[in-house]
Structures are given as C-alpha cells and as structure tokens.
Design a protein that fits this description.
The protein is α+β, with helices and mostly antiparallel strands. It has 2 domains: 195 residues, Multidrug efflux transporter AcrB transmembrane fold (Up-down Bundle); 153 residues, 2-Layer Sandwich (Alpha-Beta Plaits). A 4-stranded antiparallel β-sheet has the order 2-3-1-4. Helix 1 packs across helix 11, helix 7 packs antiparallel against helix 8 and helix 7 runs parallel beside helix 9. It is elongated and about 105 Å long. The two termini are 63 Å apart.
Length: 391
C-alpha cells in the first residue's frame, strides 16, 4: 500500500471514530463558505473580458480616462402603426412630438447622472409650432435631418452618461431614464424604445441571472433523477447527490469570497460542476455499499472504499484540474476565469467525495439504525401492552 493509500486509510478511521464531530465541522464550514454566495456579482461589461494589456485596449482605456467613460443610451421615438387608433399622428415632425422632445430633453438634462442629451429638440426654441414651421426649421438646418428617419416616421435621442463600471449604477441609470420617459406626455400612437450599451448590459444581467439559476436547477433535477434511477434507491441517490451539492456550494461561495464575478463565460459553471463532479460520489458510495453487502463492518468498509476509490478519483481529478488550470494562461481573461472556476469546482467536488461523502454515509446508516430500532421498541411495547390486556 502506497503513501497516499495509507493516509486515506487513516482518514477513514477518523471518519468512523469522529463521525458526528466531522459532520458538524462540515456543516459549519458549508455555512461559513456559503455566506460568500450573497457576494456573487455579475460581470456584464464584455470589454472587461478582453485582454487589457494589448495596445488597442490600453489606448481605449487611456481615451476613456482622459475624456470620461461615457456610455450612450439611444431612445427611438417612432410612429406606432400596430394599432387601429384613428386620428393618430402620421408624421414624426408633428408639433406635439417636437413639444415632447423639448420637454424630454429638459427633464433628462436635469439629471446629475446625465452628461448630455442630443436630439432634434436643440433646433427648436419654442414648443409651439405648426407642422409647416417645423418642416421649415428642419429644411433650414440640414444637420437636424440626422435625427430623423428618411420617411419621417421615427427620431432619435442620444443620452450620454458616465455610469462607470458598477452594475448597480447601470440599473439605477436605466430606471432613471425610464422614469423620465414615463413622466413626459407622449401623444397617442407614439412608442418609445430604449437601447444602447447600458440598457443592453441590464438585459445581459437579467439573462445571466436567469440562465445561472435555470441551468443549475435543470441540471440538478436531471442528475438527481438519474442517480436515483441508476442506484435503484432514493437514499443511495441522495447520498451521491448531497456531497456533490456541498462541492457546488463551496465553489460558488468561494467565488463570492474571492470576488470572482459570473460572466458570459462562467454563467453555466454550476451545471458544469454538477456534471463533472458527480462521478466521484458515485464511485465512493457504490464501493462502500458493495463492502457492506458482503457483511463488512462500517470501519472495514471505509478502510477499503476510501483508500481504494479515493486514490483513483484523486488521480483522475488531478488531471482534470491541471487541464482547467491550463486555461488560466490563456490570453483571454474570460477563459482564465472559466478555467480557474472549473478547477476550483473539481477540487471541492473531490474533497466532498473523499472527506464528506463517507461521513454522510455513516450518519445516514446510524440514523436508519436508530430509527429502525426505535420503531421496533415501540412495536414491542405495544405488543406487551396488548398481551397484558388479553391476560
């Protein structure tokens, strides 16, 4: 028996000797690391996933530092032809639209977060015009035509704001812009749409949050069902699944503690870790149960399963970890984060399979033994009472 097997055999002995204490330690460790989950953030700025040391990105950052990190929000104001409303506006140059543009630009400029607002409203000094006067002003100012579509069915408003890199500031700005739009009286038959980098980042944030939770939920349900089906037992399936979930909690919690955000590259890490780490628990539980079915004691079964399976999955897991760590030397930061996150996930899945799974197995067996004997004692007491009554 090699050095690793001897160490794992000693661990198996400790797991049997200090089952309850180790179980409490695992629970406390999980709670401590799990607190980090609340600090998980989302990285929606795709530029941050690019190699910042390349000249083109360094130049872009330099320009941003000098001239300010402005993000542009684009408002599209257009005729809504989807409804059957009669007497609606047929030309975006209608005086009511110009009046709304002037009012909207004034409201937006009053916001401290907004750097500047550019729209056709800058060419109109008063909100009171006839449509002929509006057309004449546009013809007299050829540059104003850049804000209108060729068919004069839509116009654009450009809002520049320095939102920085914080996701909370982006959400706040998007809500602020929407609030200002809602406060402006928009004529019937006109719709306002929002796009630009900040709104797209808000949408990306929502998609990342949804996909992270949804993919994890689907993967967990399917894997749990397959484990129960393959193990032909709900209990055995849960015994494999519980350490796997511990590994996942430890991974995501650690990412929170280390301030590693979820990005487009790592949003599906939860489902990937479940799929990659499930086999370690399957091997450990199956090997232990195999020894127990032979009539071996808990201690002897652990002394066989933990060194035998533990050394095999540690070797297999180590090669997987090295493969993922190799991604950390990639030029792309998104690949680096993906590799580091997956390597961390496999490490925790291995720890959960070798150190936590045997303890959970022993706790389950001890509970089942206690529960069965408690039921047996209750039945014995009832039987004795019944016999006394008959006598």
């Amino acid at each position: 028996m090699g050095f690793l097997e001897k160490c794992l055999e000693k661990i198996a002995i400790w797991q049997k000797k200090y089952t309850v204490g180790l179980f409490v330690l695992i629970v406390l460790f999980t709670l401590f690391v799990g607190v980090g989950i609340k600090d998980i953030s989302l990285q929606t700025d795709v530029s941050k996933e690019m190699p910042q040391d390349l000249p083109v990105f360094q130049l872009n950052n330099k320009i941003t530092d000098i001239f300010g990190g402005q993000d542009t929000i684009i408002l599209l104001i257009e005729l809504d032809d989807s409804g059957d409303i009669k007497n609606t506006i047929k030309d975006i140059r209608d005086p009511y639209i110009i009046q709304s543009l002037i009012y909207l630009e004034t409201v937006l400029n009053s916001e401290s977060e907004v750097e500047s607002v550019n729209s056709a409203a800058r060419y109109f000094r008063s909100p009171f015009y006839t449509i002929e006067q509006v057309k004449a002003i546009i013809e007299a100012n050829p540059k104003s035509k850049a804000f209108f579509s060729e068919d004069y069915k839509s116009t654009l408003v450009f809002v520049k704001a320095d939102v920085g890199k914080g996701e909370e500031k982006i959400i706040k700005l998007a809500k602020l812009i929407q609030k200002d739009i809602d406060a402006v009286p928009i004529p019937t038959g006109i719709k306002v749409s929002i796009t630009g980098n900040p709104p797209m980042r808000v949408v990306i944030m929502q998609l990342l949050s949804h996909d992270a939770a949804y993919t994890l939920f689907i993967a967990a349900i399917i894997i749990l069902f397959l484990l129960i089906f393959m193990q032909k037992s709900i209990t055995k399936g849960l015994l494999v699944f519980m350490p796997l979930m511990l590994g996942l909690i430890w991974t995501i919690g650690s990412m929170g503690w280390m301030k590693m955000p979820l990005s487009i590259a790592t949003v599906g890490i939860g489902a990937m870790i479940l799929g990659l780490g499930v086999e370690y628990g399957v091997f450990m539980v199956s090997r232990y149960k195999e020894e127990r079915e032979k009539g071996m004691s808990q201690k002897d079964s652990l002394k066989t399963a933990v060194p035998g399976v533990g050394s095999a999955i540690l070797g297999s897991g180590l090669t997987t970890i090295i493969g993922f760590i190799a991604l950390t030397v990639s030029t792309m930061p998104m690949m680096q984060k993906l590799g580091l996150s997956l390597a961390l996930g496999i490490i925790f899945c291995l720890i959960a399979a070798v150190f936590a799974a045997p303890v959970i197995i022993l706790m389950e067996e001890d509970f089942e033994y206690w529960h069965t004997h408690r039921k047996y004692r209750e039945l014995s007491v009832k039987k004795q009472k019944h016999e006394r009554m008959i006598r």
